[in-house]
């Protein structure tokens, strides 16, 4: 007879894959195969980007348990899944795309034998997009370590692909952009530090956006077949501030009167930016030029927004009550009030985009469902066609 110990079933492992870009410093001697990334900027400079991919083996049963759990506002506990995957992220196998620029003092387009990590990443993404896969670029927020960032990105990717409302013929691949957030719970110290680092990282993110623009222009000039898929951008919390800081550099290096429209949707989740940021002359006034739609998810119970507002001396936050003057919003911008459905459970009210109905709403957008589609759990807020409330 088998002993109880030998009769125990071994966990069934599943392999998760994630693309990433980062301006964090690598950990370990091999920059192309690091054990992880740290809390400082890359040793090659604040705007230096490393591109790569990682694989992580996780327990399928634990993943399924989180996906089947009711989060209070729909099925799917993405926050719990993010914590589990973040705890496992230290065992990930990381491979950065190797680069080679023969003469760093000369412009790379004027040299032979140049090998760029961004080119390799975009080529790989182009390959999977031909298989009915949209791409979401994800920028995390404040107080997030590298492992936590990996956990959040993989949870987002898993939740979107396993959403009960999603188009089963479509997939979503998440590309993590991770900036050196401290990953430390020191409210009065690390917040200020992270805000400074997010500002600098915005310029690094802008470099990545400009590289993407140049790549798309190149394949259009070659006449490559169009895959028919979309690229989206999702920013959480202070990640929206990094996006804000990226806009001036994108504008400086863009020809013509408008910024390049690279994204189908830009999702601003619990955005830690000023509530009047979209008004004329304000930092995000030109953001709608980058996308077909911009969606703001906000929650009046978001305690993290109160921390940012009152203890840090910031003006009212977009992620709390939404836009300061919603009637002045560009027609491309839609804001969704998530307050009625979000429960008060720790910081769940700040990362609610990973859970239940809110995550489902994001997936419906990537699938191209109309903003007033019957499948959505939202209704118009008042008489304005771009103001919504979750129900």
Characterization of this structure:
- It is a single chain.
- This protein is an alpha/beta fold and 391 residues long.
- It has a domain at 121-390: Rossmann fold (3-Layer(aba) Sandwich), CATH 3.40.50.
- It has 10 helices and 13 strands.
- It has helices spanning 4-7, 60-68, 78-88, 117-129, 146-161, 190-222, 239-252, 303-311, 318-321, 356-366; strands at residues 13-22, 24-27, 36-41, 50-59, 93-96, 133-139, 171-178, 231-236, 263-269, 291-298, 333-337, 378-380, 387-390.
- It has an 11-stranded mixed sheet with strand order 5-4-1-7-6-8-9-10-11-13-12, sandwiched between helices. Strands 2-3 form a two-stranded antiparallel ribbon.
- Strand 2 and strand 3 form a beta hairpin.
- Helix 2 (60-68) packs antiparallel against helix 3 and helix 5 packs across helix 10.
- The radius of gyration is 21 Å and the shape is globular.
- The termini are far apart.
Fold blueprint:
Layout: H1 4-7, E1 13-22, E2 24-27, E3 36-41, E4 50-59, H2 60-68, H3 78-88, E5 93-96, H4 117-129, E6 133-139, H5 146-161, E7 171-178, H6 190-222, E8 231-236, H7 239-252, E9 263-269, E10 291-298, H8 303-311, H9 318-321, E11 333-337, H10 356-366, E12 378-380, E13 387-390
Parallel strand pairs: 1-7, 6-7, 6-8, 8-9, 9-10, 10-11, 11-13
Antiparallel strand pairs: 1-4, 2-3, 4-5, 12-13
Helix pairs in contact: 2-3, 3-5, 5-10, 6-7
